[in-house]
Amino acid sequence: MQLSLSKIKEPIDQELTEFQKKFRQSMKSSVPLLDRITYYIVKTKGKQMRPMFVFFSAKMAGGITADTHTGAALIELLHTASLVHDDVVDDSMKRRGFFSINALWKNKIAVLVGDYLLAKGLLLSIDGNVNLLKIMSNAVRDMSEGELLQIEKARLLDIDESVYFDIIRQKTASLISAACAVGVASATDNEATVEKAKQLGEQLGIAFQMQDDLFDLGNDNIGKPKGIDIKEKKLTLPIIYALKNTDKKKRRQIKNIIKRHHNNKQKVAEVIDFIHSSGGIDYTKKIMNEYQERANEILFSFPDNVGRRGLQQLIEYTTQRKK
Predict the structure, then answer these.
(1) SS3 state at 238
(2) pLDDT by residue (tens digit) across 77-94?
(3) Enclosing domain of residue 206
């Protein structure tokens, strides 16, 4: 039976409570409009799993320090900024069941809020360990490159497996990788250990994104398909596999639907049925489990302690979560 997220985070409950205060404080502004928006962001926050990766990684590598708290706030500021900007790019009106910033305050303000959060993160990072700034700067670069690569390829529907993994490694895995690396870097100066944590987070981040891809297409364990990726003309691994393993005529037909009929619910449902019948779901589960196993292999090379056990449970939760 899978543990709940609230049960998993019990060993770091005190640290997470302190983090909440520091995170809210780090977003405060003297501009009333901005302060209202950042308050709304905090009120509608998600699971905040990335700070959990930071704290468990630090515990695993030697112990939680002041830099760990700085790193956790930095990670969440960057993640929040990226979500605000993503909603503008994707023209999304909802985020975690609440109205997005751009839906309530329009794109111009949303972009400026995202920029503000990035700036606050930079200011926070220079007050602490300089290695944290380096790790986070690399993550920001990778996330931007991954998003642009996905936009470029979506226009042509020209994505194979290698390109797909390049995109999710940069766009999604880079931030989880940074969270693990920041946690370890806050507890030790050993560069090899920090690099190992970075690789752990990357393998996990790739598995995390594949699970999100499966959510969008639905199955018996995950629930009703949404087809958002198809509507946004994003080729994820289940679609890529299905297209690769069909004849040219069917491939042209499915690509034509994605390109020209992606807003037609019946046509999108047709693509989802095709993916299921072509083995795209099962194939993606198989590859996702391989990445989970790689993450665990790296994890088990660290000392057995409360931090490692917490990360092990988070890895399991990440690939088996229901939403």
Answers:
(1) helix
(2) 888 888 888 888 777 787
(3) 14-307
